[in-house]
Backbone:
C-alpha cells in the first residue's frame, strides 16, 4: 500500500489528526509567545533575573520529551490524559527559543537608536513598543519559528499520552511494523513543520516591509486571531459532542486497535449513536484512567492485566476466579466487565515450528531437555519481573545453556525465525506466530495467569444505551484465538487497514449467524 | 541677564566612563530666542553639553537649568518633548517611513492625525524634501544628507521652543547647506527659538550664531559675538579661526 493510497483511504481520520496536531502546536506556541516574549524582555532588562530563567529553560530543553511526558502524566493538576499534558510539555519546549531570541534581539539593538528615542522624549514603555520590539521583531519571529518547528516534531510524541495528532500514525506504524503508516505520520509532520516555518517567515517579511506598523496594533490583532481560532476549534469539537456519542478507546498495539474497530463498527451497525474512536491511546494505565474519567466509554482489557496491574491483586491462575474478582472491582468503580470475547492474550513460550516437529514438542515441559543447548530471548520486562522469567524457570525447572538474551519485543519474533535465539516469550495472539511458522508451547503447569480479553464499559453508558450493551454482548465468545491471530497477521504482516480487517471479520460473523438462524 | 536665561549651565562637572573628566566647570548662559553656536575640538564635550541640557545626562556637580528649573527637577519626558534634538548620528528609526519618523514627537504629544500630517509636510518642505517624494520613503532609501535633513525636520516637527542641533548640516553640499542656512535664519527671524548648534564648521558657526562659544579643556574658553571672537587672542581660540582667515570669509563681516 502506498502512502498516497493510505492517506486517501483515511482521509477523514487524517484531517482530524492533522487538525489536532495544528491545534496542539498552535495553542502551545501562542501561549509560549505570551509567556516567552515578556520573559525575554525581562531577561534583556534585568540580566540578574533573566539569566536564571534562561538557564531553567535550557535545562527543560535537555529533558527528552518522552521523559517529560512521563514526569507530568502522574501529576494531579496538570497530569492525566491527553491534550492538557501535551500542550504543557510543548509550551515548556517552546519557551527557550522564544525567551532567548527576544532577549538577544533586544540586547543587540543599536544603542544610538535607543538614545535617539530617549532624546525625543519616549518613555521606556513607548520606547519598548514603538522602537525596541519592532526592531527586535525579526529576531523574535525567528525564535517563534524555531519553537513552532520543534513543536511540530515534539507534538508527534504527544500521541503517546493520547493527545492525538500525526504521531498516532507514527506509533501505530511502529507497532504494526508498517513503514507506510509511519510515513503517513512523519511526512505530513515534516511538511507541516516546513509550512509553519515558511508562513512565519512570510509574516516576518510582511512586517518588515510595512515597518511603520507599530506593534501595539499588530499584537492585539494577532492575539485576537489566535483566540478566535482556538474558540472556533473548541466550539466545533464541543458541538461534535452533542447528541449521543460513544467513545471507543484502545491501547497502542495492533490487536487493540483491531478490537477497538470491531467494537466501534459493531456499535455503529446496531445502535443509533455516533461512535468516536480514540484508539491507540497508550498503555493500560492511560486507558484505565480514561475510562474512569469518562473520556472513553468502552475499551478491551485482559482479565489478568486488570487483576494484577490495575487492582494490584496477587497472581492467580484460576480464570473463573480472576474474572469474577475483576468484574467486582470494576463494578465498584462504576464500570462493567462484559463476558470474555473468546480468546486469551497470554504470554506465549514460542519455538520454531521445525524444532517443535523434529523434537515433538507440545508443552513447556517437553522443552526442558532441549533447552540446555538453547539460547533464549526475552523482553526486558519479562526478564526482570518475578512473575516473568525467574518464576517460569522455577516452576518448570528450565535451564538454558547460556543466560537469556534481553531483546526488544518488536524484534524478538524475527530473531527466533532467523535462529539467533531458540526460544522466546511472545504474545499468544501475535500474527507473526503463523507468519514465521512458530509453535506455542502449552503452559501445562498453568504458570501464567489468565489473560481473557473482555470489553470494559462505563455502566452508566450501558444503562442509557441498551443497544450498545446488546452490540457488545453480541461479540462475547465470538473471537477465537485463531481469529485474532489471523487479524493481527493481516495488519502486521499483510499491512491491511485495521478498520477493513474489522469490517471483514464482522461480515463473516454476520454470515455465520444468518446461516445458523 | 540671569533671570531671562532660557538655558543655563552653572559650574557643571561631568565624568564619562573611560574618558574620565570631560567637563570641568562649564558656565554657559543662553538667552531665550538666542542662537549659540558651540565649537571645539573633537572629543571636547560639545555633544555632552547638549545631552546635559536634554536630560540624557545629569551633571556630577553644578546645575543645568532649563526655563528656570534644574533638569533634575524636570519630568524628563516633558522636558525632552519641549526640546527639538538633532542627534549627531541622526538616529532615524529604520522601521518607520520618513513621515512617521518626523511625526514621532507630535504623536507623543497626542496631536490629531490630520494636524500631524499637515505639519510633517510643512517641515519636510522646510528642509527641502518635498513630502510628495519623500514622505513614504524608508531611511535606507535616502542619501546621507537627506537623512540629516529628515533629522532636522523631526526636531522641528512639534515646534519646540528649544532646539539642540548636533552637526545638523555636516553631510550637505555647500549649495544645499547655504540654502538651509538661509531658511534657518528666516525661521529664526520669525519665531525666535532658543537654539544651541554644534558644528565643526567655523563659517557655519559665524553665519548662524548670535554668539559663538569655544569649548576647550572641559570649560568654555570664550563666548562672544562672531565679530568679537574673531579678534580673540586666546591661544585655544586662534587655531580654530585660522581656516576662516585663509578663506577670507571674515572680511565682509569685519568691515
Ligand atoms: N557614552 C560614552 N561613554 C563614555 N565616554 C563617552 C561617551 N560618549 C562620549 N564619551 C567621551 O566623552 C568625551 C566628550 O565626548 P563628546 O561626544 O561630547 O565630544 P564632542 O565634542 O561632541 O566630539 P565630536 O566633535 O567628535 O562629536 C569624549 O572623550 C568621548 O570619548
Ligand atoms: Mg559630538
Residues:
Amino acid at each position: 500500500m502506498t502512502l498516497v493510497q493510505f492517506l486517501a483511504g483515511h482521509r477523514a481520520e487524517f484531517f482530524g489528526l492533522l487538525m489536532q496536531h495544528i491545534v496542539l502546536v498552535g495553542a502551545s506556541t501562542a501561549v509560549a509567545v505570551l509567556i516567552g516574549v515578556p520573559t525575554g524582555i525581562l531577561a534583556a532588562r534585568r540580566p540578574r533575573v533573566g539569566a536564571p530563567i534562561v538557564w531553567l529553560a535550557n535545562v527543560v530543553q535537555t529533558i527528552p520529551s518522552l521523559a517529560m511526558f512521563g514526569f507530568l502524566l502522574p501529576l494531579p493538576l496538570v497530569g492525566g490524559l491527553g491534550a492538557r499534558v501535551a500542550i504543557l510539555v510543548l509550551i515548556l519546549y517552546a519557551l527557550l527559543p522564544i525567551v532567548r531570541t527576544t532577549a538577544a534581539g533586544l540586547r543587540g539593538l543599536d544603542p544610538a537608536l535607543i538614545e535617539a528615542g530617549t532624546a525625543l522624549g519616549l518613555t521606556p514603555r513607548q520606547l519598548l513598543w514603538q522602537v525596541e520590539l519592532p526592531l527586535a521583531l525579526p529576531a523574535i519571529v525567528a525564535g517563534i519559528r524555531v519553537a513552532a518547528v520543534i513543536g511540530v516534531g515534539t507534538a508527534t510524541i504527544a500521541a503517546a499520552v493520547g493527545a492525538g495528532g500525526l504521531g498516532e500514525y507514527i506509533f501505530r506504524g511502529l507497532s504494526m511494523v508498517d513503514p507506510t503508516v509511519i510515513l503517513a505520520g512523519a511526512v505530513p509532520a515534516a511538511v507541516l513543520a516546513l509550512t509553519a516555518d515558511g508562513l512565519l517567515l512570510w509574516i516576518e517579511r510582511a512586517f518588515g516591509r510595512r515597518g511603520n506598523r507599530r506593534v501595539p496594533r499588530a499584537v492585539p490583532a494577532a492575539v485576537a486571531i489566535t483566540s478566535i481560532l482556538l474558540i472556533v476549534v473548541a466550539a466545533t469539537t464541543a458541538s461534535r459532542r452533542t447528541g449521543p456519542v460513544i467513545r471507543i478507546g484502545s491501547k497502542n498495539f495492533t490487536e487493540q486497535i483491531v478490537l477497538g474497530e470491531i467494537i466501534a463498527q459493531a456499535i455503529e451497525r446496531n445502535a443509533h449513536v455516533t461512535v468516536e474512536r480514540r484508539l491507540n491511546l497508550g498503555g493500560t494505565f492511560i486507558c484505565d484512567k480514561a475510562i474512569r474519567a469518562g473520556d472513553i466509554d468502552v475499551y478491551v482489557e485482559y482479565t489478568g492485566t486488570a487483576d494484577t496491574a490495575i487492582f494490584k491483586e496477587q497472581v492467580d491462575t484460576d480464570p473463573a476466579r480472576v474474572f469474577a474478582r475483576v468484574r467486582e472491582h470494576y463494578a465498584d468503580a462504576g464500570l462493567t466487565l462484559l463476558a470474555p470475547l473468546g480468546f486469551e492474550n497470554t504470554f506465549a513460550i514460542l519455538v520454531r515450528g521445525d524444532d517443535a516437529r523434529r523434537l515433538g514438542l507440545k508443552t513447556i515441559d517437553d522443552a526442558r531437555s532441549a533447552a540446555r543447548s538453547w539460547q533464549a530471548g526475552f523482553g526486558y520486562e519479562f526478564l526482570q519481573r518475578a512473575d516473568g522469567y525467574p518464576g517460569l524457570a522455577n516452576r518448570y525447572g528450565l535451564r538454558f545453556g547460556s543466560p537469556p538474551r534481553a531483546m526488544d519485543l518488536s524484534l524478538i519474533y524475527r530473531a527466533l525465525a532467523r535462529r539467533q535465539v531458540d526460544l522466546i516469550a511472545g504474545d499468544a495472539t501475535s500474527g507473526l506466530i503463523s507468519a514465521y511458522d512458530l509453535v506455542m508451547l502449552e503452559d501445562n503447569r498453568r504458570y501464567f495467569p489468565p489473560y481473557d480479553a473482555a470489553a470494559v464499559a462505563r455502566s452508566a453508558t450501558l444503562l442509557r444505551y441498551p443497544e450498545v450493551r446488546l452490540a457488545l454482548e453480541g461479540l462475547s465468545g465470538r473471537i477465537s484465538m485463531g481469529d485474532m491471530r489471523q487479524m493481527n497477521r493481516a495488519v502486521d504482516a499483510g499491512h491491511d487497514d485495521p478498520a477493513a480487517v474489522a469490517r471483514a471479520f464482522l461480515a463473516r460473523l454476520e454470515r455465520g449467524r444468518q446461516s445458523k438462524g | 541677564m540671569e533671570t531671562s536665561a532660557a538655558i543655563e549651565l552653572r559650574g557643571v562637572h561631568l565624568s564619562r566612563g573611560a574618558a574620565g573628566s570631560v567637563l570641568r566647570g562649564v558656565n554657559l548662559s543662553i538667552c531665550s530666542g538666542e542662537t549659540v553656536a558651540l565649537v571645539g575640538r573633537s572629543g571636547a564635550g560639545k555633544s555632552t553639553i547638549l545631552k546635559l541640557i536634554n536630560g540624557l545626562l545629569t551633571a556630577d556637580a553644578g546645575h543645568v537649568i532649563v526655563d528656570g528649573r534644574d533638569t533634575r527637577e524636570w519630568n524628563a519626558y516633558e522636558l525632552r518633548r519641549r526640546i527639538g534634538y538633532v542627534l549627531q548620528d541622526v538616529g532615524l528609526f529604520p522601521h518607520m517611513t520618513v513621515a512617521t519618523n518626523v511625526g514621532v514627537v507630535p504623536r507623543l504629544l497626542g496631536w490629531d492625525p490630520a494636524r500631524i500630517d499637515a505639519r510633517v509636510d510643512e517641515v519636510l518642505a522646510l528642509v527641502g524634501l518635498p513630502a510628495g517624494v519623500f514622505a513614504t520613503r524608508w531611511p535606507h532609501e535616502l542619501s546621507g544628507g537627506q537623512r540629516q535633513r529628515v533629522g532636522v525636520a523631526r526636531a522641528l516637527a512639534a515646534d519646540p521652543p528649544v532646539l539642540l542641533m548636533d552637526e545638523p548640516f555636516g553631510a550637505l553640499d555647500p549649495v544645499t547647506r547655504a540654502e538651509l542656512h538661509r531658511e534657518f535664519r528666516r525661521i529664526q527671524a520669525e519665531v525666535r527659538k532658543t537654539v544651541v548648534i554644534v558644528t565643526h564648521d567655523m563659517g557655519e558657526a559665524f553665519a548662524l550664531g548670535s554668539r559663538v562659544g569655544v569649548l576647550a579643556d572641559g570649560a568654555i574658553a570664550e563666548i562672544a559675538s562672531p565679530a568679537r571672537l574673531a579678534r580673540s587672542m586666546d591661544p585655544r581660540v586662534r587655531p580654530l579661526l585660522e581656516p576662516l582667515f585663509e578663506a577670507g570669509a571674515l572680511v565682509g563681516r569685519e568691515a
Notes: The beta strands of chain B are 5-16, 20-31, 35-40, 61-66, 69-70, 83-86, 162-166, 194-198, 211-216, 219-224.
